[in-house]
Amino acid sequence: MTQQPMIDFRKQYFANERDDNLNEIGKPTRRQDITGHVTGRSPFYDDHLFEGLLHMRCARSPHHAARIRRIDTAAAERMPGVLRVLTGKDVPRNLNTLLSLLDFGIDDEPLLSTERVRYRGEPVAAVIATSDVRARDAVAAIRVEWEQLPHVLDVEEAVKPGAPVVLDIYPNNKFVYHGKYDHQKLRFGDVEAGFRGADMVVEGRYQMSPIEQAPMETCGAIAAPEQNGRFVCHTSTQALFFSLATAAKVLETPSSRLHFIGGTVGGGFGGKVDSIHEPLAVLGAMLTGRPVKFMWDREEEMQVGAPRGAERWYLKDGVMRDGRIVARRFTGYFDSGAYTRLSSYAIIKGVGHLPGPYTIPNVAADVYCVYTNRTPATAMRGFGITGVDFAIEAHMDKVAEAVGMNPIELRILNAYRDGDMKAHRRLAKNCALIECCQVVAEKAGVKLSPAMLAAASTRDGGGERARLPAHTATDEHGRVQGFQASSYAKKGARPPPPPGAPALPTTAPVPARRDVPPAPPPTPTPAPAAPRAGSMRFSSLSGFRRR
After folding, report:
1. Entry pTM
2. Is the pLDDT of residue 130 over 70?
3. Is the backbone of residue 105 left (phi > 0), alpha (psi -120 to 50) or beta?
């Protein structure tokens, strides 16, 4: 029996990302930047040498939470080679949150703390000296009078009544969206009714601990005066314009006075998006009139370098005996650490990804951005998605075991088909999970049933699977409407519920509706020309960037 090809790879969907004619497996290929790396000619920020270069080091908190009673810098200021000792009062605008540049969130993190510290390693003073050794000695001479405060390190402990408050602007230790929502919510269908109608319920708890970025090149920057009152800053940042805008904001100086230069990044992964080095380096150069280098050592990188934030997920599935998942509930907690950084945005990404690549008629999610007295978390390789994907797929294996089903076939059975309605009120298209599962099974020697081998993402989607469930809430008051998904998906065809419309009970019978014809398969898009050098590519974090 001749085995027929399983899938259409749909290469046109990736034509703008790579050349489909590549044939690189089994032969060496030279990286474009490898010559510079192995010869030492690739420019890193630390390679820029300036005459009279000064060095900056920070005095840091030994406590997870404490009130600062007094900072005594007198002894440090008298030490040989020390030019300045900076505290929070020297920072023109000593509060920042990266996303506030996009009008998202409240400035909550000081550059140098003056009244309270909220995580171990938080900086309270910065020494500028003629050498790194002298800067370290001066930091050791700074005396801080601390009043230790209760702290909390676990996300679920942090949201309990009476837990220590990490940030006064968020007294419940939860980020507040749009000034009124303490979490991100997703509702699709009637999840409780789905559980009641299921043959079994499968629950699981999944957790991902903080992960240190550990770049080979530690974070840092070198700032130096230029002519005409301008300052140049060489930095390892992954977000050059965020860094420039943050420095201009914190230092209350026009961005036209700042000349920021990026370069080769010795490992970033998202950890070099936070702009916490550049403002201090530039401030040092402004106050001394000399070049200043602020570079973490390895101990600092491991202690206070922003990690991938910890996540905890609770999943509850209503499952039929044949493996169909008819209801799924998520409860998630993102550990933001002591300040917001990018965690609030990560949750928006995460909730926008639920319930994973599966068509589930009833979905509910409540996901919280929680403050603890840990090192502030930030972006790292798919942040917002990686943790919940781990939870989803680990849970799928648990469900497969509960129903006695091959885990690959369970995924094929529940996978999105083209034309299915997602939990975010958008029709699925360009789906390929089924085909990926078939290829994985083939490569792994896993035998699939004829029905699963015959399944395809381009068939059996849409129709009833394209409907918006009648009892899906469409506004913040829980009001629902029973309009059809086909009209919902049309641009401009989503009318708001009428003012004062009563909420329909979730147990109300579903009114009879006309069937919606299956969505037509997507028209193949012609492959665009290969991108030229310097063309723009979209980044979910920083918008469009050059290739």
Report:
1. 0.84
2. yes
3. left
Burial of 356 (0-12, 13-18, 19+ CB in 10 A): buried
Q: CA torsion angle for 172, 173, 178, 182 (degrees, to 10)?
A: -60
Round to whole Å and give the CA distance between 84 and 287. 8
CB atoms within 10 A of CB 504: 15
Residue type, 181: Y
- Give the contacts of 33 (CB within 8 A, at least 6 positions apart): 42, 264
Residue 9: CB atoms within 10 A of its CB come to: 14
Provide the pLDDT for residue 523: 44
Rounded Cα–Cα distance for residues 362 and 188 (Å):
5
Residue 219 near residue 299 (C-beta atoms within 8 A): no
What is the end-to-end Cα distance of the chain in Å, rounded? 47
pLDDT exceeding 90 applies to what percent of the chain?
77
Summarised one tens digit per residue, pLDDT across range 335-368 is 999 999 999 999 999 999 999 999 999 999 999 9
Euclidean distance between CA atoms 359 and 416, whole angstroms: 5
Quick one: tokens of 367?
Answer: 């996901």
Domains of the chain: 46-149+213-304 (3.90.1170.50), 157-211+307-405 (3.30.365.10), 425-522 (no CATH)
Length of the chain: 547
CA distance 425 to 83: 60
Q: Can you tell me which residue has the tokens 């008629």?
A: 361
**Residue 361 DSSP label:** S
The residue that leads in pLDDT, 61 or 487, is: 61
